Amino acid sequence: MKKIIVEPFHFTVNVFDNKKECIDWVILNHADYDIVETIKNSEGLFHQFQNDPKFILLYDNKNTLEHEIIHATWYLLDYASIPLSVDNHEVQAYLFEHIKRLIKT
Questions:
Q1: Which of 10, 28, 50, 102 has the most CB atoms at less than 10 Å from its CB?
Q2: Angle made by CA atoms 92, 53, 55, in degrees to the nearest 5
Q3: Which residues contact 36 (CB under 8 A, 6 or more apart)?
Q4: Do 41 and 2 touch, CB atoms closer than 8 A?
Q5: What are the tens digits of pLDDT across the range 28-66?
Q6: CA 79 to chain centre
C-alpha cells in the first residue's frame, strides 16, 4: 500500500496494487464487507468510505491505473464541490497528472 495525500484538497488516498492487501486493509480499517466483495470481483476500483474523506484506489496494471485515476478525479473534484464542465475541464487534467505522479514516485 502507498498512502498519498492529494493536494490542495488534502485528501488521503490509499493506493493498492495487490488485491489481498487491499482486502485485508479494508477489513482491518473499515469492516466494510460489501466493498470487499466488490474488490474480489474487480480489476480496479476507486472508492470513498461513507462519511469519511479517505479513499482507496486499487489497480492491477497500467491500464487499470489510468482508468481508476479518471474515476478518482471525478470523485475528488465532486467531493471538493468543483463541478466539471467544458469550461473548466483543465483542472481534471492537472489533477490526473498530479495523482499519477504521486502514485508513481
A1: 102
A2: 70
A3: 23, 26, 27
A4: no
A5: 998 888 999 999 999 999 998 876 767 999 998 777 999
A6: 12
Q: What is the number of other CB atoms lying within 10 angstroms of the CB of residue 13?
A: 22
Cβ-based neighbour number of residue 37 at 10 Å: 11
Amino acid (1-letter code) at residue 11: F
Residue 34, C-beta contacts closer than 8 angstroms, at least 6 positions apart: none
Lowest average pLDDT, out of 52-56, 78-82, 92-96, goes to: 52-56
CA–CA distance, 76 with 32 (Å, rounded to integer): 21
> What is the residue whose three cell numbers read 493536494?
7
